[in-house]
UniProtKB/TrEMBL annotation:
CDD domains: fer2. GO terms for biological process: respiratory electron transport chain; tricarboxylic acid cycle. It catalyses: a menaquinone + succinate = a menaquinol + fumarate. It comes from Frondihabitans australicus. Pathway: Carbohydrate metabolism; tricarboxylic acid cycle. One of its GO terms (molecular function) is succinate dehydrogenase (quinone) activity. This is Fumarate reductase iron-sulfur subunit. Binds 1 [3Fe-4S] cluster. Binds 1 [4Fe-4S] cluster. It is an enzyme of class 1 (oxidoreductase).
């Protein structure tokens, strides 16, 4: 019997190789530091790992004092916004393969808000502005059934419902950096969400609030906010629409 010629089985896919990356993190401990300073850490990672994975590895294996916020780790809660290589991003959505690892990856807290420790800032001023624009549906009538809304009416404000209050847009704004009284993009985006909601009856109140020297007119249309938004909201466009509504005196 002749020996059958057997095809060779395909070789198994080669395992994904880990690489070493250096993270340069801007550290600050208010108990011992007078000013923030930079510290470098080397970590072994996969290309599909995220910056959040690198931070976890540093905290769990190298320096337990490293302080940062995170919760869902899936780009929904918005708690891990930080500056990565000079840009506001969510650490849980930033993949290592999308960064240049030939040089240290810089990680620091978002700007414009009081620094508390390492990558953690005081969010109270941010949420104070958010509360001031009355971010909730206001309607005096009590309908017997659900308030109906057409597809077109919903589409009018659909984009601004995506905000996760991460502060990436607001803390990327040069005006906000220099003027702590400015409402900031996130507050205006959330005002937009209700100003253009056909079911809401207090649009005029919100327009009056934003028609202020620290309101929509402080925006300089630099598009930093739009570039920084991890949800892809057209922030600058939303601000322009609110400006137009203020001039009209109605949505």
């Amino acid at each position: 019997m002749s020996n059958a010629v057997m095809d060779k089985a395909p070789a198994a896919d080669a395992p994904i190789q880990k690489f070493t990356a250096t993270l340069s993190i801007r550290r600050f401990d208010p108990d011992v530091d007078s000013e923030p300073h930079w510290e470098e850490f080397s970590v072994e990672l996969l290309p599909t790992d995220r910056v959040l994975d690198a931070l976890h590895q540093i905290k769990w294996e190298q320096d337990g004092s490293l302080t940062f916020r995170r919760s869902c780790a899936h780009g929904v809660c918005g708690s891990d916004a930080m500056r990565i290589n000079g840009r506001n991003r969510l650490a849980c959505k930033t993949l290592m393969k999308d960064l240049d690892i030939s040089k240290p990856i810089t990680v620091e807290a978002i700007k414009g808000l009081p620094l508390e420790k390492d990558l953690v800032v005081d969010m109270d001023p941010f949420f104070a502005s958010y509360r001031e624009i009355q971010p909730f549906l206001q309607a005096s009538s009590k309908p017997e059934k659900e308030r109906l809304q057409s597809v077109a009416e919903r589409a009018r404000f659909d984009d601004t419902t995506k905000c996760i209050l991460c502060a990436a847009c607001t803390s990327s704004c040069p005006v906000f950096w220099t003027d702590g009284q400015y409402f900031g993009p996130a507050a205006i985006v959330n005002a937009h969400r209700f100003i253009f909601d056909s079911r809401d009856e207090e649009a005029k109140v919100r327009l009056d609030i934003l028609n202020d020297k620290e309101g929509v007119w402080r925006c300089r249309t630099t598009f930093n906010c739009t570039d920084a938004c991890p949800r892809g909201i057209q922030v600058t466009q939303a601000i322009a629409e609110v400006k137009a509504a203020v001039l009209r005196g109605r949505p």
